[in-house]
Amino acid sequence: DDPSIQAFILAALTAGGGITGYARTGSIPSIAAGVTVGALYGLGGLRVRNRQPYGLELALAASFILAGSSFPRAVKTMKPLPVGLSVVAAFGLYRFGMLWRAQDDSRLLLVDAHIIFDQHNDQFGHQHRLDKARHAGCRNKFVGAA
Predict the structure, then answer these.
(1) For the whole model, what pTM was predicted?
(2) DSSP characters for the chain?
């Protein structure tokens, strides 16, 4: 269930597939695409594991690139390799897309919660928001974090 492990598995599958494609047919585009997409998955997995920003985004980008190249070929040829790559891409799009969406939703909740708790009561019991500059600093603190 660890997204970094899933990214590493997809990295190995795509890079290994590109290397295999080159070994079997001598295809330079196969090795270039496979190793590039594999590197994106691998870097995304490392960043997720180390809790650095843009890890999920890198894995999601790799899935979009893989889907963009494999889906049309799978539909056109119905050959096992493009279909298999399409399944890998679909898994990546779903898994990393859902995690990215959940991460984005949790950031927004943190910002909303912080704004709610930034309100205070004056001596008459009236609520007042703190100045806008303070809110801007609060918002940047959470929205920019990974």
Answers:
(1) 0.71
(2) --HHHHHHHHHHHHHHHHHHHHHHH--HHHHHHHHHHHHHHHHHHHHHHTT-TTHHHHHHHHHHHHHHHHHHHHHHH--HHHHHHHHHHHHHHHHHHHHHHHHHHHHHHHHHHHHHHH-EE-TTS-EEPPPHHHHHHHHHHHHS--
With cut-offs at 50, 70 and 90, classify the pLDDT of residue 112.
Answer: low
For the purposes of burial, counting CB atoms within 10 Å of the CB of 55, is it exposed (0-12), middle (13-18) or buried (19 or more)?
Answer: buried
Q: How far apart are CA 48 and CA 54, in angstroms?
A: 8
Task: For the chain, give the longest Cα–Cα distance.
Answer: 80
Distance CA 88, CA 74 (A): 12
Q: How far apart are CA 79 and CA 57, in angstroms?
A: 29
Q: Who's near 126: CB < 8 A, 6+ residues apart?
A: none
On whether the CB atoms of residues 84 and 116 are closer than 8 A, the answer is no
Residues 111-135, mean pLDDT to the nearest whole number? 50
